[in-house]
């Protein structure tokens, strides 16, 4: 246990006042989370917070945790929650928006429990992208973003971590009825059509002639 940091308490209290609305976006590495989040931002005015992007920015900023984060990402391991949660809290507080897509988090039970304990925020729902491993592997190895972890050796480690640590988090939310699953193996446009249905409010679905599940 570390000492209580007044600045951390302040961030948590200020964030609680803001009452942010959060959607967690989960799925295996390369399932298309970032791609679809960009579409959701454009159509539904959320702010996209990628845990991985925040961690990579922290490395670039030359922070004291930089080397530790870089080593963990290279190995496909999950960075301790304390670090990632602080970055997410700060980003939510700095944004003028109050609707957030939190992408790639929570990635394990520790992430999930710590986020809930610290922020008291529960997700509105959890968007899950399902994609076969062979397809995710193909996408990651041709992503071409110069990422140190998009090599076959690290990709295999990330798949193992996803199966062992992240799937249980998805199961946890499934049991709570919070998961909205998407077939992410289809082309980008088709995946977004399915995503849109989930984000469109029920009332608007009636107006625009979608089939709704609402009972009359
Ligand atoms: N539905 C899709 N079909 C084919 N390629 C895709 C699809 N969605 C994303 N991609 C591509 O696959 C790679 C991984 O997608 P990305 O959104 O970065 O995944 P994630 O954030 O889940 O790791 C990117 O190069 C992206 O352009
Ligand atoms: N909650 C998180 C999210 C990402 N990460 C790290 O960041 C890496 C890349 O995550 P990402 O979400 O940007 O990318 P994908 O693996 O989904 O393609 C992970 O493999 C972890 O090493 C983490 O430690 N904790």
Task: Characterise this structure.
InterPro entries: Adenylat/UMP-CMP_kin (IPR000850), Adenylat_kinase_CS (IPR033690), P-loop_NTPase (IPR027417), UMP_CMP_kinase (IPR006266). CMP binds at residue 111. Its EC number is 2.7.4.14. A ribonucleoside 5'-phosphate binds at residues 56, 77-79, 104-107, 147, 158. Keywords: ATP-binding, Cytoplasm, Kinase, Nucleotide-binding, Nucleus, Pyrimidine biosynthesis, Transferase. There is one protein chain. The longest helix has 24 residues, at 152-175. This protein has a single domain, classed as P-loop containing nucleotide triphosphate hydrolases (Rossmann fold, 3-Layer(aba) Sandwich), CATH 3.40.50. It is globular and about 55 Å long. Helix 1 (6-18) crosses helix 5 and helix 3 (51-60) crosses helix 4 (66-74). The protein has a 5-stranded parallel beta sheet, sandwiched between helices. Helix content is 56%, strand content 12%. With 216 residues, the protein is α/β, with parallel strands linked by helices. The protein is built from 10 helices and 5 strands. The structure holds adenosine-5'-diphosphate (ADP) and cytidine-5'-diphosphate (CDP). Residues 29-30, 33, 50-52, 55, 72-73, 76-79, 84, 104-105, 107, 111, 149, 158 line the site of cytidine-5'-diphosphate (CDP).
């Amino acid at each position: 246990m570390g000492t209580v940091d007044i600045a951390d308490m302040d961030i948590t209290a200020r964030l609680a006042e803001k009452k942010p609305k959060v959607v967690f976006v989960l799925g295996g590495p390369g399932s298309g989370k970032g791609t679809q989040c960009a579409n959701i931002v454009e159509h539904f005015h959320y702010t996209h917070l990628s845990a991985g992007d925040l961690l990579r920015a922290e490395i670039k900023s030359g922070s004291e945790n930089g080397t530790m984060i870089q080593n963990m990402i290279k190995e496909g391991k999950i960075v301790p929650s304390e670090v990632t949660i602080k970055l997410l809290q700060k980003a939510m507080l700095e944004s003028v928006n109050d609707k957030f897509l939190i992408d790639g988090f929570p990635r394990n039970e520790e992430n999930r429990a710590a986020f809930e304990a610290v922020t008291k925020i529960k997700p509105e729902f959890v968007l899950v992208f399902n994609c076969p491993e062979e397809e995710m592997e193909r996408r990651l190895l041709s992503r071409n973003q110069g990422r140190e972890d998009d090599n076959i050796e690290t990709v295999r480690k990330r798949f193992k971590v996803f199966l062992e640590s992240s799937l249980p988090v998805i199961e946890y939310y499934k049991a709570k009825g919070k998961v909205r699953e998407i077939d992410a193996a289809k082309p980008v446009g088709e995946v977004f059509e399915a995503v849109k249905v989930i984000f469109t409010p029920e009332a608007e679905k009636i107006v625009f002639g979608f089939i709704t599940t609402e009972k009359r």
